Structure formats: C-alpha cells, structure tokens
Amino acid sequence: MGDRKKVILVTGGSGLVGKAIETVVNERGGRQEGEEWHFVSSKDADLTNRESTQELFKRIKPTHVIHLAALVGGLFRNLKYNLDFYRQNTIINDNVLYTSYENKVEKVVSCLSTCIFPDKTIYPIDETMIHNGPPHNSNFGYAYAKRMIDVQNRAYHSQYGCKFTSVIPTNVFGPHDNFNLEDGHVLPGLINKVYTAKKTNTPFVVWGTGSPLRQFIYSLDLAHLFIWVLREYDSCDPIILSVAEKDEVTIKQAAEMVVEAMEFKGEVVYDTTKSDGQHKKTASNAKLMKLCPDFKFTPFKQAIKETCDWFVANYDTLRK
Ligand code: NAP
Ligand code: GDP
Fold first, then answer.
1. Helix H or strand E segment including 213
2. Which of 73, 125, 190, 208 is deepest in the core (most CB within 10 A)?
3. Is residue 120 part of a domain?
4. Residue 74 C-alpha to ligand 2 middle, in angstroms?
5. What is the pLDDT of residues 2-25, one digit of tens each?
C-alpha cells in the first residue's frame, strides 16, 4: 500500500468487533509502522447525521475506513424492530460510503453478515448468493439494508473506481459483546443467563428448541482477518469470514459449552415457546482458506472460556 502514512478510521470502534480490532492493533502486534488508528463511537459522531459524519471525516482525514457502525442485535431485537434496522443502517451506510467517496478514501471495508443471505437456498452458502432471494422474515430489515452495501460498493466502483469492499462474518462473540438478554445475540445471552442461574440457584433457560445450527467466530480471530482484508484483499466482491462447515454447532451444543466453561451444575431447560429463528445459514469459508491457507482459528472451547472469564471479570461495567 505504498509508503504514505495510513490513517485508519474504524466506525463502531466501541462495539464487540471494534474493540477486538483495537486489542489486536494495540496489544497483539497488529499495528504496522506508519499506521495511525482511530476507533470511534456514536459519542464521536452520530453517523445517521450527514453533517456529523462529514465533520468526523474532516477531523480524522482517513485514508482507510473499516466500517462497523450499525444498529445490531440478536434474533429477538430484529423481530421487534425491522423498520429501525432497515432505516438506521441504510442511513448510516449511505453517509459513511458517500463521505468516504467525497474525501477520496483509498479503501473502505464494510461489514455484512451471513444472516442476510436468502432463506431458501442451497448449502453451503457462498459469496455469490447474497441477492438470490428474500432473507429470513425475522430480520428482513437488517438484511436488506446490509445487502445494499454490496450494491453501493459495486456502484461506487463502476462509476468512480472506488475500492470499497465488504466482509461477511458469521455469528460473532467475545469480550465487549452486548450481553443484554432482549437485544443481544445467543452466546452473550447464554453466558449472562448461566451466570444468573448459578448465582440465584435457578434453572438455566435456553430459548427455542436448541436445534438450530450456527457457525461462531471469535471476535479476536475476526479482528485479525479484518486487518488482513484491509491490507491484502482488493476485490470489490465480498468475502465470507467464517470457521469451517465442520465446526458448525447446534444451539444446544453451544449452551453445553457455556455450562462447562462457567462450571454450572444446575438444571438446563428449553423454552420452546420462544422462536428458533433461521434453522441454519451454513456458509463456506473456501474462498477465505484459499487466500489465507495458514490462518488458524482459536478453538471454540478456548474462545468460550476466555469470553466467560472476561464476562465474570467485567460484570459490573459491561453492556447487559
Ligand atoms: P455492537 O457491539 O453493537 O457495536 C455497534 C457499534 O456501532 C458501536 O460502536 C456503536 O457505538 C456504533 N453505532 C451504532 N449506531 C451508531 C450511530 N448512529 N453513529 C455512530 N456509531 C454508531 O456491534 P458489533 O457486534 O460489534 O457489530 C459490528 C459490525 O459487525 C456491524 O456492522 C454488524 O452488522 C456486523 N456483524 C455482527 C455480528 C455479530 O454477531 N455481532 C455478526 C455479523 C456481522 P456506541 O457504542 O456509541 O453505541
Ligand atoms: P441469529 O443467529 O441471527 O438467529 O441470532 P442469535 O444470535 O440471536 O441466535 C438466535 C438463536 O439462538 C435462535 O435459535 C434462538 O432461539 C437461540 N437462543 C437460545 N437462547 C437465546 C438467548 O438467550 N438469546 C438469543 N438471542 N437467542 C437465543
């Protein structure tokens, strides 16, 4: 990427993925010479506001952007707020991409998700299938807003030659996640519920049947891959960032891993009145492994244990 100083702006820098990238950059040797990193949150700029977004870019003068900021949530938050997910994310993405174009940013890496793929599909899902049919009904607002990032990236490329691309992670978890039961994703929810069940001597309630399948990626692994994409991956086409298909687990297996990590000895029950959501969204990581054959994912058990330990150590201050 040349000798010019790189100024990297990370939107959503206070969230699960942003904090993991910050950890890798500042504590795990992820920083290269000549790089200046800025991790920003909604306190630095409300990205739903065009002027506020423009002021942020004038202040930081980024040459590169990792765009993570979004209204994010698990199945149950999506079910309730499809309109908010569509509107807020569409506006944030339009502001960030257009302001990046206006300010001649060299490269933008935005974040999609495997939950935006068509509901009725063949498996494994790959990068070519994003627009092949309607998403699952539970999160169509989020899904369509995210799909439009891919449309915008292609349009900025074809009209102006911009190097705007996107990555597609599977379910992410790790330190700094949102552990709120109503809003958050399944793993932080399970960790929070086991913690309370252990403390209050009550059953641990897993929502749904436990049969849906998910591929989970540890936020710190995702952070390394994001940095690799920023430096090395120059196509406008999205790339799936996921563990292998063989590492897909049921929600029940994930719940059992959390029980083991938290050394919970009480009763585990399944509340089948709660939605299961999408049964599976099995994704192929073949493209990633072809480009990055030596990448090693943290074993799931170790990553769960580290996340549970972080949760217990930071219980008083974390999002819950
Ligand atoms: P998160 O922990 O909820 O963090 C969201 C981030 O976005 C926070 O830094 C938040 O700032 C910022 N943000 C939200 N609204 C904003 C606004 N109006 N203006 C400025 N900043 C705003 O989410 P995450 O899990 O790290 O998600 C990061 C990215 O990964 C998102 O694009 C998400 O769609 C994608 N992704 C996540 C998952 C997952 O399982 N978590 C899976 C696939 C893809 P504040 O802290 O100030 O609110
Ligand atoms: P998804 O992967 O986009 O569907 O979102 P989630 O990360 O919210 O995972 C939802 C799946 O986990 C569904 O099958 C839920 O029934 C199941 N689940 C079990 N317990 C919980 C919980 O405490 N919170 C959440 N969000 N989901 C749970």
1. strand 213-214
2. 190
3. yes
4. 6
5. 457 999 999 999 999 999 999 999
What is the count of structural domains for the chain?
Answer: 1
The domain that contains 289 carries what CATH number?
A: 3.40.50.720
Q: Enumerate the active-site residues.
A: 142
Q: Which domain covers residue 153, as residue numbers?
A: 6-175+215-245+282-299
For residue 194, give both structure tokens.
Answer: 């086991």
- Is the residue at 200 inside a domain? no
| Distances from the Cα of 74 to the Cα of 5, 80, 82, 276, angstroms | 38, 11, 12, 12
What pLDDT sits at residue 3? 59
Protein residue whose Cα sits closest to atom 27 of ligand 2: 186
> Do 67 and 110 meet the contact criterion of CB atoms below 8 Å apart?
yes
Q: How far apart are CA 2 and CA 239, in angstroms?
A: 24
Helix or strand (DSSP H, E) at 303: helix 300-313
Q: Whose CA is nearest to atom 13 of ligand 2?
A: 276
Of all ligands present, the nearest one to the C-alpha of 248 is 2
Residue 145, in any domain of the structure: yes
Would the CB of 169 count as within 6 Å of ligand 1? yes
231-265 pLDDT, tens digit each: 999 999 999 999 999 999 999 999 999 999 999 99
Residue 39 located in a structural domain: yes
Q: Cβ–Cβ contacts within 10 Å for residue 150, how many?
A: 22
Give the distance (Å) from ligand 1 centre to CA of residue 237: 22
User: Which whole-number Å values give the CA distances from 211 to 46, 51, 206, in the listed order?
Assistant: 39, 46, 11
Place of tokens 């509901």: 119
Output the residue whose Cα is nearest ligand 2's atom 28.
186
CB 139 within 8 A of CB 85: yes
Phi and psi torsions of 291, nearest 5°:
-85, -25
Given a contact cutoff of 8 angstroms between Cβ atoms, the answer to whether 111 and 15 are in contact is: no
Strands of the sheet containing 239-241, edge to edge, are 35-39, 6-11, 64-67, 107-111, 164-169, 239-241
Tell me the C-alpha distance between 306 and 245, whole Å. Answer: 23
Ligand with an atom nearest the CA of residue 182: 2
